[in-house]
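Memo to structure team: turn this sequence into structure tokens by end of day. - J.P.
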Amino acid sequence: MDVHNVEFLISAVRPEQYPAPVIPEIALAGRSNVGKSSFINTMINRKKLARTSSKPGKTQQLNYYQIEDLFYFVDVPGYGYARVSKTEKAKWGEMLETYFASRENLVLALLVVDFRHKPTKDDIQMKEFMDYHGVPYFVIATKTDKIKKSQWNKHMSDIYKTLELESIDQILPFSAETKDGRDEAWEIIQGVLDGEFQVEE
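Reply from structure team:
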């Protein structure tokens, strides 16, 4: 997809702040600092539209980015950051529960994990959460440039087994540094938008 028109729309906390559900939404969920913002910036060929931070836990709202008037990328709050208070974690959990359970135009969730490590308990919980709510999802494994190609099969297998996926083909290796996986990610997104194939639900 050639992306020319991109707009940061709103940071939403409550359903009444969400944009009107007139176009599809694709949500990005993952641990704090796993690379969700870098993924968005790489996909749209922008350096700083999606705000990246070296401080985990910074994203505390649902950040909406409108892409070509075709769909929204929704960057949801990162999870698994220890310094966030239990009260704040509870708020985030409630926010995500409300969003994933009720958003009618959510067509795909991208579960973003770190390719270098086995998925965490929080990653597993997020995958189970998507299963429970019937949200179609695909796994994006970031930071692949940090791992030698000879070790990729092992890391792919670790993610596949830990998340108990139906198929290893549900995982897309991705690097914001080298842009490896960018074209394949667009193929997945375009296919879902066009209704050409179904992802795991």
